[in-house]
Amino acid sequence: MENPTQFVQWLRSVAPYIHAFGGKTFVVAFPGELVAAGALPVLAQDLSLLVALGIRIVLVHGSRPQVAEQLGLRNVEGRFHNGVRITDTAAMECAKEAAGELRLDIEAAFSQGLPNTPMSNAQISIVSGNFVVARPLGVIDGIDFELTGMTRKIAADKIAPILQTEDNLVLLSPLGFSPTGEVFNLTMEDVAATAAIALHADKLIYITETPMMSDAAGEEIRELSSHQAEAVLQANFLPPDAAFYLRHAIKACNSGVDRAHIVPFEMDGSALLELFTHDGVGTMISHENLESLRQATIEDVGGIIKLIEPLEADGTLVYRGRELIEREIEQFSVIEHDGVIFGCAALYPFPDAKMGEMACLTVNPDVQAQGDGERILKHMENRARAAGLTKLFVLTTRTAHWFKKRGFQPATVDDLPKDRQHMYNWQRKSQVFIKSL
């Protein structure tokens, strides 16, 4: 090993993710283009690693290029409308053949077991079946989609026990069945999103043929709330394929899935990089109720004062009078529910040092331990990044361990921006913690 220290540091850095992901359910979907590009064996190795870490995986494959190949062999031209295949009888036969071939390829990829490879000692069992109930898509814009369908239901009650068994992986194909015995051709994106919703999955991950998502100015889009993602769709600057993925990611997040990721497969190990590094290599969409987690306004001053007064009284927070809060209200963000402020924090930027101070992080004791403190922290980190800051620091006398658990490192007063050093209260003797963004 050339650099054992670097390896140890890396392993320690991924440990929090390993602890967080154990026992979670991930729906991972990939297009037929990934198989055509020869990337299936590597993806199987990476997903086998996730299974070994105790993550429950539901795998959904696409088949568009394989169906197109089968149609070409029959000299039949494929038909599409708004990017969705119109499936006639000939196309359905091709879809069935493609799905069968891909299932065998996937089972073979997960059956690798050569010594000195990532699949050594892996014993993954692929389980598939009639888990997808579908209905016809019908006639849209005057176009009859014939045997093209959409997912109506996922048999989550049958899939969940399978995932409970160690080393089991469930495979879903983009084919669904009606109660009358008909077969419908579905989109991989629809099957995956519906499965993630039905299984209450913690993550929906699309491993895509599309490049990294970029905004209208060409800047990479790393993270979006579902509300922001809807605005991106309405702006209509994304390529059609990327927009199709994003639309289904939004659907999943708005229906209870914590996170959806859109990750290009062109980079080796992209799924692992997305999951086990801070910034990832794709675009993450999360559901955030923007009406409840937002920047504060002058109308929130009374609610903030009521929230922080008990903590000021016992010395946890520095006293802030109404006039000070009114002057600095633009620095505050709040969590609101039914008109009641039950969480807040403030961000004070120091642009010259590219640092920001997060202060007054408070959550109502009645709703603590529900993750709202972390929601506020994430929100403030995003505000700091948007302001061009690269580091966030806090001064605390009571909550050092909480910040340590969330990536803040102990520091000294000398590490603070010069202007903030002059304002440091040496009688209070607050501990300093800094986090790189």
TrEMBL record:
Name the SUPFAM superfamilies on file.
Acyl-CoA N-acyltransferases (Nat), Carbamate kinase-like
Q: Where are the transmembrane segments?
A: none
Q: State which pathway it belongs to.
A: Amino-acid biosynthesis; L-arginine biosynthesis; N(2)-acetyl-L-ornithine from L-glutamate: step 1/4
The UniProt keyword set, sorted, is: Acyltransferase, Amino-acid biosynthesis, Arginine biosynthesis, Cytoplasm, Transferase
Note, other: In bacteria which possess the bifunctional enzyme ornithine acetyltransferase/N-acetylglutamate synthase (ArgJ), ArgA fulfills an anaplerotic role.
Q: Supply the source organism's classification.
A: Bacteria, Pseudomonadati, Pseudomonadota, Betaproteobacteria, Burkholderiales
Alphabetical GO biological process terms: L-arginine biosynthetic process
The record's GO molecular-function terms, alphabetically, read:
L-glutamate N-acetyltransferase activity
**Organism this protein belongs to:** Massilia litorea
Q: Which domain of life does this protein belong to? A: Bacteria
**Listed name of the protein:** Amino-acid acetyltransferase
